[in-house]
Design a protein that fits this description.
mainly alpha, two-stranded parallel sheet, about 70% helix, about 0% strand
Length: about 475
């Protein structure tokens, strides 16, 4: 997806949901047939992402691959497949995995399944039955293929080339694990509450007991069962309480040796995923959309630091420190640029720099306002994210400049000539918006009224000079 132009991404997100659904369906059918997709897998992933952002994902009736991979949906994530996460599968590997299944693993059965699934599109029960039977067939063949790769280097190289993903054998093992445990996951989902507001006390005991009973002696299933559980938590970082419960201690070293240690690894991976999403938002200038991600990262970091004893030099301690450092680096450039952006927009200009009847560029004002808002968000969560000093410094600079610099703007507007009045008014309007974010709506309201009086005084002066 990184190779797609930003203009194409924006265009896709402006399409009506129905058009996106049709486009996704056509691309998926092409992929299922093994056809070359225009724009590659990145285009299909971007269309799917736009669909998810538009609301409930569209049904893709009659799509054999979609129904076959439906069991993987709770575990799928977007992003770089090279960055492996426990209990997760990169969505981008599905197309090459499907091609391997249909071309090399079970080509005859795949053709039969595809034909029958397309004909059964109007019958969901028959559709699901076909997919279930085909999954059983695929599971048996993957087991056989992986067993052969274990004892024969030539078989391993051939299988790796056929699958074609960066971590081919690991991807095949993950697919095998999930498809083999479909019934177990269905049992877990059926018995978990729809939403768990607080994973503690009796609720924690019940969830732990459920996972112990269903996972049993299959530790390879546990990461996926934990991801399912996390999906029901109102506060996802509380998943680590299962690890604390299992080890009967908050000591990170002792927890790391317990079966549920992977719960901590899953939460750390989720924080890293949120940091990657934050980077992507800020890179495309969507700083206003970053607020919820910053809060999520903050809450998870605080939860880990509160629930676990990370005072020692453990791998988790170092990983969490690296995350906090990464977040600080991601936000530093944005936060520290806010004050300069505001100053450049609101500075008083010589008359020869002001075009007659010109105004500030709306995009520039919107971007600066989003940065100011981002500083406010960071100020709320600064301590846990290791950005306390730079955030407080920038906020103080903005506060002082807006509190003192707007008076000069008002005086200039009061004395403005006809040619520069519109530009000065646009500067004051921008200052009102910035002040609302930093000094509060009451201050901004007073400033707006003062600006009206200044503009009125300028109009009276003009009328008097014309008389």
């Amino acid at each position: 997806m990184a190779g797609l132009p930003e203009r194409l991404r924006s265009y896709l997100r402006e399409l009506p949901r129905g058009a996106l659904a049709l486009l996704a369906g056509e691309l998926e059918r092409a992929a299922a047939r093994g056809d070359q997709i225009p724009g590659g897998e990145g285009l299909l992933e971007e269309v799917r992402a736009a669909l998810r952002e538009s609301g409930r994902p569209a049904a893709r009736a009659g799509d054999p691959a979609r129904l076959f991979f439906a069991a993987l949906e709770p575990f799928l994530v977007n992003g770089d497949p090279a960055h492996r996460r426990p209990g997760r599968i990169a969505r981008s590997i599905l197309t090459p995995m499907w091609s391997w299944i249909c071309r090399d693993l079970v080509p005859d059965q795949a053709r039969t399944y595809g034909d029958e699934a397309m004909h059964a599109a109007a019958d969901p029960a028959a559709h699901e039955r076909l997919a279930r039977n085909f999954r059983k067939c695929v599971v048996a063949e993957i087991k056989s293929a992986l067993a052969g790769a274990t004892i024969d280097e030539r078989v391993r190289r051939r299988l790796t080339g056929q699958i074609g993903t960066q971590h081919a054998l690991d991807d095949a093992r993950a697919l095998l694990t999930i498809l083999s445990a479909v019934d177990i996951f269905a049992q877990i989902e059926a018995r978990l509450p729809a939403q768990i507001r607080n994973l503690a006390d009796a609720q924690l005991d019940n969830v732990k007991s459920l996972l112990d009973q269903t996972v049993g002696s299959q530790p390879e299933i546990l990461p996926y069962a934990l991801v399912l559980t996390m999906g029901r938590l109102a506060v996802p970082w509380q998943l680590i309480r299962l690890a604390v419960k299992s080890a009967e201690t908050d000591d990170a070293v002792r927890i790391a040796g317990s079966p549920y240690a992977v719960a901590v690894a899953i939460v750390l991976a989720e924080i890293e995923r949120a940091v990657s999403a934050l980077k992507a938002d800020l890179d495309r200038g969507a700083s206003s959309a970053a607020a919820s991600l910053i809060k999520t990262i903050h809450d998870c970091v605080r939860g880990l630091r509160t629930e676990l004893d990370l005072s020692g030099d453990s791998a988790w301690t170092r990983r969490l420190a690296a995350i906090r450092s990464d977040v600080a680096n991601v936000l530093r450039r944005q936060v520290e640029s806010a004050s300069g952006r505001v100053r450049r927009l609101l500075r008083l200009r010589p008359l020869n720099e002001i075009g007659r009847n010109s105004v500030l560029d709306d995009d520039d004002v919107n971007e600066a306002e989003a940065l100011v808002e981002l500083v406010g968000v960071c100020r709320l969560y600064a301590s846990e994210l290791a950005i306390n000093e730079m955030t407080l410094r920038t906020y103080s600079e903005l506060h002082q400049y807006l509190d003192t610099g707007t008076q000069a703007l008002l005086e200039s507007l009061r004395q403005a000539g006809e040619g520069e009045r519109r530009f000065l008014q646009s500067q004051v309007d921008a200052a009102v918006r910035f002040c609302a974010k930093v000094l509060g709506p009451d201050y901004a309201s007073v400033l707006a009224k003062a600006a009206d009086l200044a503009a009125h005084a300028a109009n009276e002066r003009k009328a008097a000079s014309s008389a």
